[in-house]
Amino acid sequence: MGGGNGQKAKMARERNLEKQKGAKGSQLDSNKKAMTIQCKVCMQTFMCTTSEVKCREHAEAKHPKSDVFTCFPHLQK
Which stretches are tagged as biased composition: Basic and acidic residues (predicted)? Predict the structure, then answer.
């Protein structure tokens, strides 16, 4: 039966290395990359999952004199 202190310490070090490899980076980085929708009037960015309703709300609240399609040309079909 093995399992002396040296072996236990080695196994613990290996487990800790595996745990440290699991951390792949910050969620903030991927959030910044997902900001792909941009208002063409004020250049504010929105997440790629932003709905058409939220885009329309932004256009009506922030740019009442501009058309919704001026702010967000991707909404035109």
Answer: 11-21
- When divided into structural domains, the chain yields a total of 1
What is the value of pTM for the model shown? 0.61
Residue 70, classed as helix, strand or coil, is helix
Backbone angles phi, psi at 67, to 5 degrees: -75, 155
Task: Please report, as a single letter, which amino acid is at residue 51.
Answer: S
Element (H, E) at 9: helix 5-22
Task: State how far the Cα of 28 lies from the Cα of 61, in Å rounded to an integer.
Answer: 27
CB 75 within 8 A of CB 52: yes
| pLDDT, position 2 | 63
Q: Per the domain annotation, does 27 fall within a domain?
A: no
- Is residue 7 in a domain? no
Residue 8: inside a domain: no
Task: Say whether pLDDT at 1 is over 60.
Answer: no
